[in-house]
Amino acid sequence: QCLQCHGQWRRYTEQQFIDEGLVVRGSAANSKLYARNLFATSGGGPRNMPTSGYPPISPADLSAMEAWINAL
């Protein structure tokens, strides 16, 4: 879903997500990528993803993102 606007991420490695400051290895709670999606519909975060009228990430996809980041 993110690739609709962030197509360059298609080629990113896990390390590139970390190097770009989008992901903190082993900590979804401290990762920008996770926080910007988590607080899209509730909470006190940035609330800025997704933009352009796209629906928020599904709970299942958000959970998968969290598990992926926490497993790094």
Can you tell me about this structure?
With 72 residues, the chain is mainly α. It is 36% helix and 0% strand. It has 3 helices and no strands. The chain has helices spanning 14-19, 32-38, 59-71.
> What is the straight-line distance between the termini?
21 Å
Q: Quick check: average pLDDT?
A: 85
**Strand tally:** 0
Order of helices and strands: HHH
- Residue stretches low in confidence (pLDDT < 50, at least 5 long) are none
Biggest beta sheet summary: none
Tally of individual helices: 3
Fraction of residues in β-strands:
under 5%
Oligomeric grouping of the chains: single chain
Residue share in helix: 25-40%
Radius of gyration: 12 Å
Shape: globular
**Structural class, from secondary structure content?**
mainly alpha
Write the layout of secondary structure elements.
Blueprint: H1 14-19, H2 32-38, H3 59-71
Which characteristics define this entry?
single chain; 72 residues; mainly alpha; 3 helices
Nutshell version of this structure?
This protein is mainly alpha-helical.
